[in-house]
Protein 1
Amino acid sequence: MIGKTANVGIVIVSHSPLVARGIADMIRQMVGDCVPLAWSGGNAHGELGTDAGGILKAIEAAWSDAGVAVFVDLGGAETNSEMAIEMLGLPRSALVSICNAPLVEGAVIAAAEASGGASLAKVVATAEELSP
Amino acid sequence: MAVQAEPVLVAGLIEVCRATIAENSDHLCALDRAIGDGDHGTNMRRGCEAVSAEGESLSSLPFPDAMEKIGLTLVMNVGGAAGPLYGTLLMEIGRELRKSNEKPDFSQVLKQAIDAVARRGRAHAGDKTLLDVLYPVHAALASRSPLGAIARRAERSANRTADMKAMRGRAAYLGDRSIGHIDPGASSCALLTTAICRYLGEHRPQ
């Protein structure tokens, strides 16, 4: 990627570590490693749940100056992701978007879009087209 | 109500909140099993224990800093939606207190913090959430109700969430089936309010 703008990063957030990791595996197989990718699944104690601190680490791990698109499953995942983005602080927090899209399909199609060098707005819009 | 740094007060409040949640943890889980995923009591207990473990260092901080730190500790340890919601409440109380360092009006501070919780959860009064306890508690505080009356108002408000249909959180997936059950977040909020009012009544007669 030298000499090019970095691709948008993708973060998967699920209540289940297995779900989060599984989707990340699918993305790696389908789009390779040209997209910064990280996941956070379960609470801080490894049980089902979500963890703002873990999500914050995942966003930092998948950081790209082009921005990061976050995919979440149920309610608490979204609330904790918002909290994590806030903790990231400006200016970086302005470059992170939570997508209103189905977790698996949304994350995969967003990663495919991101791998082509699309902007954060385009990546998010493409994923959100999947929402009813 | 003037708010100052009072180490003993902070340490005492942390302890009564921890003890209340520990005593009622099973009950909160049972409420959550009816309309959520059944872990509200466990999550809250974990959060309160994490705060309690840092009790000594927290109580040596200025009051606004202690509130903010407790909020962050809850965010990091409670998990679920309750972590960011309770965390936002306390973090905002800390931030608002710091902004208004000269004789802050605690009722105003609490209102700002509750509004921040509403924004965080994108919820409103009547959605069957902890807001349905927080807003009445604020109203009681703003009208200078005695501590005992504030606590009773919190309990009544939590019980009233049984008649509401959940619009936010996991319970919202149940739609009409959520009616008839007390919201676990509203319940933990009322329990904590009651514990705090009782403690302040005993240790800080008005």
Protein 2
Amino acid sequence: MTETLKQTPTPSFLEYQGRFKGIFAWIFSTDHKRIGLLYLYSMLVFFSIAATLGLMMKLELIAPGRTIMGAQTYNSFFTLHGITMIFLIVVPGLPAVFGNFFLPILIGAKDVAFPKLNLFSWWIYIVGAFIALSSQFLGDGPPDTGWTFYAPYSFKTGTNMLPAVTGAFVLGFSSIATGINFIVTIHRLRAPGMKWMKMPLFPWALYGTAWIQVLATPIVGITLLMVVLERTLQIGFFDPALGGDPILYQHLFWIYSHPAVYIMILPAMGVISEIIPTFARKTIFGYTAIVVSTLAIAFVGYFVWGHHMFTSGMSGVALYTFSILTFLVAIPSAIKIFNWVATLHKASIDLQTPFLWALCFLFVFMIGGLSGMVLGALSANVHLHDTAFVVAHFHYIVFGGTGFAFFGALHYWFPKMFGRMYDKSWANIGLAIFFTGFNTLYLPMFYLGITGMPRRYYDYVERFHGPNIVSSMGAMLMISGLIILITNLVRSARHGAKAGKDPWKGKTLEWTVDSPPSLENFDEIPLVTQDPYDYD
Amino acid sequence: MTDHAHIDEHRDDEGAKTGMWIFIFTELLLFGGLFIVYSIYRYLNPMAFHLAAEELDIFIGTANTVILLVSSMTIAMAVTSIQLKNKRLTLILMGITVCLALAFMVNKYFEWSGKISHGIFPGSEILHQSSQGEILFFGLYYAMTGLHALHIIIGVAFIAYVMWLVKTEDVKHDDYVILENSALYWHLVDLIWIFLFPLFYLIT
């Protein structure tokens, strides 16, 4: 009987007809691959909004004084840009899209542990997004606090803070649900023979990330809830007039939001660890070291939140402790860089588009990481706090790190997801323009910050004019690159040449199934006998 | 062919319980944030917290503690009785749990409305004339017991839903993990109260 079943071609998950038709076949689907794509499409929409806001801000900064918008508009633009990019894109980003799509396939499972919960978390995500975005249109004008909602301004300002904070609170539940789902999936659904140390590195990264999602998100959840109660009921948690302490808000906020940076970057590192061995045609160097450093980052990342508050007022001992811990967390990150570079040593490298993305990632991530060291040092931090330097560092890590890994993952797994190949030369051209634009945009901001330009200002003195022009030109260049990249992918999803099962000659399990995969991924659950990157 | 395209009925009780435990852990952390805030403000305003705590009625607090402890016991007994294939007893025990929870809420209602009628609620005139420590104490009192009461309501809805599943025999002696999970959730609600009760009523 199994013989005949093997003969019949199985429909791919894209063609499979379930109980519902049309769009309902997607938004009510519990298939992890469809949910992954739902996240991808929603994020594409939110990303275009937030990127447009970013571009508008750079246009405002092209000349001193008022250029295209006033101060209040600028404030609400950077607030919405931050809220959208952080809570709707980078925090859920890689786990929700590629984690959902590839985690079960990479560990040889048919779906995640709780498929219904998985669909539910997408719904929470959409509801949270609409609540957050509604803050722009309802009430007394868009929020203007920045994405950090610092007290006491967040409940003193007359703008429409409530939906923004509530939206972020609701989005936290989506993050927690995904985290629980992935932890249980990895514990319970690994294919026979896939021991922990035979698991590919992207699932490992998702595992570390999921624990941070589960352990850190509740803290920000309750903190945002306190802001909501503060605004509606005047309870006094963070209001000095009623006995509250605004610094306590900062502590509670960063106890989550610093680990959240590792929610953003760990899966990115996981993606790079998948791409590099595939195109180096070589086992990854120091598999165990990468696993251990992933867990070490997740662990140490909990104890560094204070470095966001070096100028807020803390005891000397606390300052030194947080500074030392911040330097410590750089060690496991550097270990990963060494491992990736060592993998390339004496490898027969195949220079395909995903690999170029990985190389660009290494370049920008190192700039981001090293500038982080500058900010982690106490004396330098006092000088650079709240300047454009911080913005540049942050974008090198979060956009340069997570963003590059996201596009790298998209170019790496695109043939598997859609069963078609994209136009490689357009992809490379887009990458080149994007990469040039990215560095032209953010490198001058390091210089601007060191020379004293503050962040979050819509205006500046004449001597900052030159670097700002360069930076704004970079923004336009980068956006052109993005448009080329996305157009190429969208066009190729329909019209690209058919991709086989294994276009990159990868060794992990996803390359053994059809492109696009069938509904249940595997006809039979595979028996894993090899290490994940066995090229010898 | 139709067999092939059908997703296998996947069942993993161990996994479902693992998921529930992790979720319970996140709930503890959620309240943990409030406990941190409580302990910091208590440390900063020891005298005001002491005076404010004397305003609370220890009798109602104790009664509610006993009610929740008993309800935790009845839901645990419900899990045992479904294993013994006694559907009727399971439903009765779950019903008692729900009734006890409602009794808790009735007590809470009288307690809160008593306070509010005395003009003690966040943002009230009387409270704003008191010391900052008292404002914070009652702010935390309403926020923490309010959030806890919300969990009671969710717990009641959850248990009522599982009761319906027991009635329709979707939950039976060889497949009762959701009943176990609802019981776990109820123990969590109980556990949090065990911490709230001394913090607000007993330490004076």
Protein 3
Amino acid sequence: MATQTRTKTGLLSGDYTIEQKEAILGYLLVAPAVLLVGAVILYPVAYNVYLSFTQVPISPEQSPTWVGLRHYRTLLSSGAFWDALTNTIVFTFFSDTLATAGGLGAALLFNRRFRGRRIARGLMLLPYVAPLIAVAYIWQWLLDPLYGLVPYVLGDLLGLGIGQLDVLNNAGTALWAVVAFDAWRYFPFAFLMIIARLQAIPADMYEAAKIDGASRFAQFKDITLPELKYVLGTVFLLRWIWNFNKFADIWLLTRQVQTLPIYAYQTAFANYNQGQAAAIAMVLFLALMGFVLLYVTWILEW
Amino acid sequence: MLKTILTTTVDGFRAAFGRGRIETSPLERAVFLLAVGTVLLVSLFPFYWMVVTSFMPESAIYSLPPTLVPTEFTLDHYESVFSPETFPFVTYFKNSLIISLLTGGLSVLVATFGAYSFARLEYRGRGLFSRGVLLVYMFSGILLVVPLFQIVVWLGLVDKPSSLVITYLVQTLPVSLYMLGNYFRSVPPEIEEAAIMDGYSRIEVVFRITLPLSAPAIVAVFIYTFMIAWNEYLFASIFLRTQSNFTLPIGLDALSSGFHQVWGQIMAASLMTSIPIVVMFVYLEKYMVEGLTFGSVEG
């Protein structure tokens, strides 16, 4: 590209160099995206910080009144908040671990060639792709206490004696049902990430290990796992972030599990305490950021 | 589904017990096939159960022991799903379709411009913009729920589908920009430069060369955005008020809490809700690995 080429035609009148024109075009093209993100994400996030220090009136005509740290103090002294936080951590940890482990297992299986691998792989992605509302209902139906297949198989066939237990309407069991549901729904995501990395491991590493007489297990421990360390760490972190913020998956399956996002939602739209809800969302965000920072420094060693 | 499981298993057997690998023992092969079969069964059985239940007569659905392989089929559930006096499934479907198509279309437009700018044009602040947009990805829906609701109320956009379209569009932008930007960078710049040398303007080059070459990525972005909009529950549940404006997730949710023991109809509605997504997915599978791996609004 010749610099300082003067042209009098084209996009804009006046004398501009090609570089200047390109820059102007660049700004013009990126403007809609940047403005939208600023207006619909950045501004609301800042506004949420402000709202968390205010009492938001129910009628939109009145403006919020400043209450300082009151919502935060209320939260820290409320049992419901700590329960919700515990539920969030338990749900996130177990659903994340199961989904990552399931993804790793499936990736190791599908790393071998077999006939029909492509179609099998496509079918395996279905839980991840199908609409949430549909799979949530399928699970509700499978777990239906009267005619559901799962209670029948577990109770009547295997005699585990849970009989007519209503898994999704019992606070003790509902949490584990949601953990299982999310692990089932998102293990294909972990699978996709892990298999991509797995197939990039050079075959001659294994060849060399075989010549040295390393067992299958030794090959897995000394080659596969170290090579996958980074992708496993990343998958676990991404799923942690998403599961920590999960709302609809839990809400549509059962109303018996209260995690922080659900607690915030109910506070905002059932009790109409929007300022308090903004504070819950802030605490959720800060707790998550704290975890991410710790994780990135200690586990991933970035 | 069942047929696929069978053929996959048979294929697997052929592969394992036919010619080929000498180093694996029969036991090992059997264990391997059993494992693949188990993974597929766990993944697919719920979908099989959805399809079967949606065609089962009431008497078979509500009986113990459950019938795994039904002998009678009925279209009753589909009839009631499609009859407006029973419940407005068609309305919900239409609303979801309009919102998802609009979101997909707008997303392609805004993301194409933005991603081209990030990928090809030099200007100050480019790196800041492109990295900043990705950072935005860290903010979850729940952090935006209260402020966006306040803003939507203040703007008088409550119960208007447009408020949802804008919300979904912006929430999917980071991933759309990332996907398209990566693709644009893979188009050799020499092609564009040659065209500019030939006297085409930058805009003409984008429309005549870059976009046609990037068609697969653009389709992938459209489908990804469509899927997110099709699925979204949180914002739809707080922005929409009247039933005639409901999208599928909230409409079906309202239905299931209002009735009891209507599993046949609910499975039929779930199947109809899944069809557009599954059709798109079959088309997208090639690009899926790249795009969707990066996740979704709330992954």
Protein 4
Amino acid sequence: MIDRRLVEYFDWWMLALTAAIVTAGLVALYSAVNAGGGGGQSALFGRQLIWYGLGMMVMITAFIINYKSYERWGHLFYLLCIGLLIAVLLIGKYVGGSKRWLAMGPMSIQPSEIVKLAVIIMLAKYYARVVRPDGLQLRELVTPVIIIAIPFVLIVRQPDLGTAMVVALIAASMTLYVKIKRGTLIGLIASGTLAVPLVWMFLKGYQKQRILTFLNPDRDPLGAGYHVIQSKIAIGAGMISGKGFLKGSQNSLDFLPEQHTDFIFSVLAEEWGLIGAGFVLLVFLLLITWGLQTAQRNRDPFGTILAVGVTTMIAWQVFINIGMVMGLLPVVGVTLPFFSYGGSSVITMMAGVGLLLNVSMRRFMFEK
Amino acid sequence: MRNYLESVDTDWFNQRLVGVLVAVVLAFTVLSIRLLYLQLFEGRELRRLSEINSIRLQDIDAPRGMICDRNGTTVVDNRPAFNVYIILKDAKPIDETVARLGQLLNESPETLMATIQENRKRGGYTPVLLREDIGRDTMAAIEVHKFELPGVQVRVSPRRHYIYDTHAAHLLGYMGEISQEELQGSPFDDCKGGDFIGKFGIEKAYEAHLRGKRGGRQVEVNATGQVVRVLKTVPAQPGQNIFLTIDEELQKRAEALLQDRVGAAVAVEPDTGRILAMASSPAFDPNLFVTGMTRDQWNELVSNPFRPLENKATQAEYPPASTYKIVTALAGLEEKVIDAKTTFYCPGFYKYGNRAYRCWKKSGHGEVDLVKALAESCDVYFYQVGEALGVDRMAKYARAFGLGAATGISLDREGKGLIPTSDWKKKRFGVPWQGGENLSIAIGQGFNLVTPLQMASLAAAVGNGGTRYSPYVIEKIQTADGVVTFQNSPREDGKIKLHAENLALVRQALWQVVNDPKGTAWQSRIQGLHFSGKTGTAQVVSMPKASDGSSGEIDALPKDHAWFVAYAPSENPKIAISVIIEHGEHGSSAAAPVASALIQAYLGDNQP
């Protein structure tokens, strides 16, 4: 029943790189939640371990099922995710002024994380059918725009600008990857640029304020601006060799806000210095390159585009999150894959790796 | 199925991937350069900053909006309060610092340490609030010794101040600490635990306007936690100021008149619905809620049988008693049950079924027409009007005057009162309406319940010729810079359809109540200023009787409630008033003089 080639072609490298990152992530999280003599947060580490247990099961499920089934059933998964996003707006939990979570018994899930995978599968399914060497035309872009716009609007409504933007960036990367006709592309860019001032005119005052703060955290020195200052101090203070495990003072003294979610890279860089942070950057780079390698080795357009989608998801989040904590990019709520605390993020990333393993080990089987 | 390989081949995809790879490598190069820059180039300086943990965030509290009367006199503002905080990580050595601070605060170090232990937060850089509102002298002493007190900070924050203590307390309301449930709610997004928010009265109803927006600053501190540099500041935005419709002088007068009594007085402008005064007695001092009260003070407030925390003008519901005869009279005239010439004979009681319903005047009023019946408050006359009308027709007119429904004034927990109908009784008790009950309703007893505010509105509507205005207490709201964000204007709730001659007849009777020697309020008339009104004496149902049924000494207390409603001047009134004095016994002797004094106070100078 099980094809022997599946075992033979299992992608041990991908698994090893993931394991390395997950380990580094758990070490950093342990520091982040155990700082300053404990407090109420130490339990988070245990819960994250449970999430990784679940994540492992999701990953195994994701690579055992032939990925061609995802192509066939992707739209159902997509509809389910859209349903969850609508449910969030209707019955979601309010946390800190936005509704992002759905309570599911003792746990709560964040559908905006999972919907990224649904968008990737839907787009891969569509593009695999219409891709042409000379690139896509405008009318072929109508469907993808609808596929993206629905979750995008629903996520913006929560409001969760960061995640909405990540969804848009992943989709844009995949679209550019399958190529758009040169003329169409130029037209799109031009009209997009022209639309910006027009849209701006129609925004309400507070919406403009939000976008300006989003672009320049210094406008909000008590929130984002302060977080970035503290985060930069923590990272820089790590210097070459770091302050050592559990010795980061910025983190341990409660100076870093949300150090276990969005700002976890700062904890890592403070305690392990350039050596640790550089190592993590390197492993991320390897994982992403290996994801692209997986895409390259697969001969089936759906598998290739799917692998590109998952890889760009990881790449964008790594780039935005680390850029943000180092003060290069605006502060938006984007998690660092495999590092940030949170079940939905862990499961989404593990499922993503599962898909990559799936595409990788079935690279010669698409003819069936 | 279509063969994909006809359109694109693997090589084509591989070419596309090169672009992606280049982009990824570029992005990681940027991240690496930034990391190198922070950790190598700026590392030493950032390490230094991290070791003294020198960048702190401090709150700047927003001053709450002020409350002023119609003339702009401030009645509620904010005063500076000095609070002592300690930052544990900076306060080293802790024992010495606390001991020294204890001397200055006149407090034992043990008590202070106990407070610290109770409130210590994770980390130790979060300031722990030690003592609130320490007063200027103590503050000065701490500032002088600040170098012996590392980690100790005195911060000033605005604190609510009710300038005239108990003055208009029920109207203005009070503040209290925000609760856990309130913190979860979206209207309190920018609140933190420990914040004070409006809990009652205007403070609560206009919380969103009064509360400003908290600001803050990023500061750099030295090793002892003293601020050496302010990096960035976001100023706090003060709350908006509220201007009331209340006339300060009249309000003070009303409170003085109710002093040592239990009851309420409400005055409205008949042509607009503006509340000119709203007093409720006994009152409380809202300042106590700000500074925190002792257990005894709190117990005294909540267990006081005279309910000082209740706004009796809007929340308390009483039987309207004879003041309700205004409604019965108008209903009788409009429904053509009686006219100006209808007379009944009052021998001092009225027999209905096998029971005799008594008139308050034992000897009886003799032959009475409507004007006399109202002026002298003859019960027998109205028993017969009520019997002829029935409860439902009376309820129709009572409702038209706004009785039995909240007026919609923007104050907390407004009472609705109760105007019964036969349907209501069937639903409520499952038994049909009894004919005898019509008689009680006609003279404002039975199930009837009204609030003093509703009765003031009724007086206003009778006074202005039959127009109902929604009563309101807020004239305008403006920002600290004087930009008006809300300007109230009179809102007509509709006209009560009454025939002019019927209204004129009732108004003539109400004039006689005060200005005819036989009228029940003749004692309260004002020389040279004609006003009209109606007395009422509400039976206190729970009045204890001596066990043998005789009126012994026990039923001396509690006595009946005294009512008076009025408008003045009689023609073209400028003020309408309702007064209730709990256990005041007679409307004529207890309530009418209060209304009369208020009318004199208000119209004394403004007389036409």
